[in-house]
Amino acid sequence: MGQDGSPAHKRPSGSGGGLPTTTVANGGGRGGGGRGGLLPRGRQMQKTFNNIKITILCGFVTILVLRGTIGVGNLGSSSADAVNQNIIEETNRILAEIRSDSDPTDLDEPQEGDMSPNATYVLGPKITDWDSQRKVWLNQNPEFPSTVNGRARILLLTGSPPKPCDNPIGDHYLLKSVKNKIDYCRLHGIEIVYNMAHLDKELAGYWAKLPMIRRLMLSHPEVEWIWWMDSDALFTDILFQIPLARYEKHNLVIHGYPDLLFDQKSWIALNTGSFLLRNCQWSLDLLDAWAPMGPKGPIRDEAGKVLTAYLKGRPAFEADDQSALIYLLLSQKDTWMEKVFVENQYYLHGFWEGLVDRYEEMVEKYHPGLGDERWPFVTHFVGCKPCGSYADYAVERCLKSMERAFNFADNQVLKLYGFGHRGLLSPKIKRIRNETVTPLEFVDKFDIRRTQVETKPQN
Amino acid sequence: MGQDGSPAHKRPSGSGGGLPTTTVANGGGRGGGGRGGLLPRGRQMQKTFNNIKITILCGFVTILVLRGTIGVGNLGSSSADAVNQNIIEETNRILAEIRSDSDPTDLDEPQEGDMSPNATYVLGPKITDWDSQRKVWLNQNPEFPSTVNGRARILLLTGSPPKPCDNPIGDHYLLKSVKNKIDYCRLHGIEIVYNMAHLDKELAGYWAKLPMIRRLMLSHPEVEWIWWMDSDALFTDILFQIPLARYEKHNLVIHGYPDLLFDQKSWIALNTGSFLLRNCQWSLDLLDAWAPMGPKGPIRDEAGKVLTAYLKGRPAFEADDQSALIYLLLSQKDTWMEKVFVENQYYLHGFWEGLVDRYEEMVEKYHPGLGDERWPFVTHFVGCKPCGSYADYAVERCLKSMERAFNFADNQVLKLYGFGHRGLLSPKIKRIRNETVTPLEFVDKFDIRRTQVETKPQN
What we know:
Chain A has helices at about 40-70, 80-100, 130-140, 170-190, 210-220, 260-265, 280-290, 300-310, 320-330, 335, 360-365, 395-415, 440-445; strands at about 10, 20-25, 145-150, 150, 155-160, 190-195, 225-230, 235, 250-255, 270-280, 340-345, 380, 420, 430. Chain A is an alpha/beta fold and about 450 residues long.
């Protein structure tokens, strides 16, 4: 685009977008000044200087663009990175398509829209005789007992949203989290259901566990306990077992503190990130009483205001399942509390901040199987939200802490195989004992399933 | 940087890096021409025009930088995206740190470097009496039998590298893949080990399965079969069971075609993406014979050349475990083949390309439990490599096909719960039957564990 002739547009070499550079053609412009002949020396210098400025400027921004496109430190890298970038861009495009969920074969498009505040939300048709239905079924199906090897059958329910995380690292930590759960549950004979679907569009997000818990209870009569566990909670005591004998007279086992609950009405008195619910009529009734604050939209928003007013320390936001449960148990205390065990003798849920820096100290002083502050059963990364975008804590602190917790647990699993991580931040492992031609002596010694002890919480 | 005074540097508004813009100060430069007074009109126009050019240019590259930084289509988005972008950038920085594995607490830094071509690689100390060691142990430990409910105990081994995928979507599909395996294995009483560690730095990548298989055999004497399955292989027939009775006299079960193997010596005659290896001395010996082509560096490179020369259709690249196994079984046929079952009556491994477009047709015409081309047991996404960068197939085709396979399988799992996906590309689900107050009739009807039949492959 020049006034006379066409200035030379040169594309810089290298991969990543090319930027046009304009070299101002010699010969000045229209209007005054010599044209055709040599310019005065001073003017020539000025023009040259201007050209240099423009070249430097455009070279600088070219570098910035390349840097932004192909990443720091990769200047001058090969076309492989351009291919890589293309793949990532194409992936993002496909992701956006999948996220928009524009499948032409989608039938029965639901009526989108929030539930009317006047409608009454129900999880499902009211069942009133679940205990006897279940008992009859168990009698008729002895090949599906509700106890296995003398222990009540537990099913661990966890999950994550169906779509890729907003923050890519989120999926990687979801993967590690489920591996962690696979390891614990394999060693303790617990089945896992990993839910990636919203059974009820009204109850999405943290509320999604309610319809899924109900559905699993009704579909798995052989299961005695449904154990919900958040995707951001990791097992960190691989040896510890839930002391089920403590809960023979209870139907809900949840970590919390009675004084925070009854005296302070604190919104964090209990934690619904990890709790057990017995498969029985009482639990179906609890779910039915719990759910009504859940439907998204005006109901959930209004309920949130009620909860914020009622519970100590609760910020203003829509109703969440944890606050709603606390509210329910407080406002209908006589109905429910008799069967609720508020557990804090071990970390059924262990808030991560006070735990993650002490793992080395724990290894030095204690041993697995304790489940409490000496060797926490579960380390729960509340507020870290690696899958989403709006964490309550610094990203670096969260990611490194989750890495440490994962490796701390993994070391306990790898011990049987003779390995351990090089450090709590390291994905690499090293041998912790030599191999032998008689490996079974170590199986006898280290296989957790063979060294199970009924852990008694300290009182 | 100006000849006179200082040109105004203005940072453009908005997030993502600011670019300096230079507005050339009015008043011209040194040397000729009027200074201080008004320039001739023509010169003024030229200067103005030059300024406009520079402004447009720099504005253009600013847009490019922003576009590259915050993604297409996000121009003018809110500060939330800036926060999001900051989180993602910080995450990437942390990721780079984790990938570089710079943990100061790392002890015993290994001697990096390839194995000398003269050294002989061994997986571990040579065991010669594993069958009798195992038999004695099983006798002494009746609480850990090698059969459960009349079926030999199987352990499924799968895994992925310890670090986040180069392509972020890769971790999401690894997550879906492991959920798919969790579902199948829960329904069939199979234990899972998800390996995210390299037990032997020499045998990384696709070779990593060998030391892990050996380690699991020696650590789990109660396990009769180790089943290796790639992370890019999905179960697509949730009902089908491995017909173990077919393999009573065999120790390795692998999908393949005898004519491709013996007549054509094709490098894809067998597929090591999904195979079963019995826990016995024969298998330890096979692993020992298989491993020597694996150590990375000159050994693996040289071995690759041998394999390319020997096997039909093999491209030139380092030795992979599949080619090495084919080579071993061909070159030492008499030693091994008697105990190898080359299976193709059902899709122990099913190459995805010919399968994924037919799922709707399968639903229409057939039913789960067949395991073959009518309803494939396993759909294996060979060459898609969602975790890495260098796929052999188009990214879009791969991702959409994996989504379809996942949902095709998930529908079979969700059926018990009364749900199904809205379409094979949709993460959303819908009810496929109404809820009732007597849910156990559906449990009797749809619970796969209750409808297990010993499937006989067609002959």
